[in-house]
Amino acid sequence: MPIVKHDIDSTFSVGQHEAFVRTLREAMNRRITSALTLGLLLVGGLHARAQTKIMNNSTNKTEIATLGGGCFWCTEAVYQMVPGVKSVTSGYAGGTKPNPTYKEVCTGDTGHAEVVQIEYDPQVLSYDKLLETFWEVHDPTTLNRQGADAGTQYRSIILYSNAAQKEAAEKSKAEAQKQFHRPIVTEIVPLSVFYKAEDYHQDYYRQNSNQPYCHMVIRPKVEKFEKKLHEASR
Predict the structure, then answer these.
(1) Is-catalytic flag, 71?
(2) pTM for the whole thing?
């Protein structure tokens, strides 16, 4: 039977009434405390399970893609915006001279191309998606040239690290060819050694966005790709 305030007033003296109310409050406080404790334990348990699930579904493992699509300042700036990309490093690959400098690569005598090495999370971003972006952000039909940048160091090139990447690159190239009227001249070759470029080339667009080349050449590419990412996120 529920306790009603009128029943208490008619049954007990003032002293008894106060003692009863005090006892009742203490009992209620104990119940509330117990309920809160149980609730916190349940919530904590659920949170821990959720955190464990997230950790189990995530991975610290990353993979590497090495691509060249003209000036590495341009390529780096675009891939830095791609969700799932952990880092982008500008460098040189595909040639014969060990530890080349930028000045040496610019002569065209080293055989190296300006490339970027992309570290990415394969659970967020696939190699195929990286290649889709590759075909979109440069012209793979111009031999040893991207716009006004001419020379073998600016050639279109995919350097694969394993058989799976080679197969994916060849398949992606064949699919991309449907989007171009002229033949794609992109090289698909094994990666032997990647040489990191000088420090001043790293994160170049972000550090030098007002530089004339960045303003005239890189910014339009970045803004175009940024617009595409924004539309895709809607």
Answers:
(1) yes
(2) 0.74
Q: Would you say residue 47 has pLDDT above 50? A: no
Provide the b/e sequence for 104-138 (b: ≥16 CB within 10 Å). bbeeeebebbbbbbbebbeeebebeebbebbbebb
The answer to whether the beta carbons of residues 75 and 68 sit under 8 Å apart is yes
Report the alpha-carbon distance of residue 64 to residue 118 in Å, rounded: 5
pLDDT tier at 59, thresholds 50, 70, 90: low
SS3 sequence, 178-223?
HHCCCCCCCEEEECCCCEECCHHHCCHHHHCCCCHHHHHHHHHHHH
Closest C-alpha among 158, 133, 139 to residue 64:
158
Q: What is the token pair recorded at 25?
A: 């409050």
The residue-averaged pLDDT of 8-19 equals 42
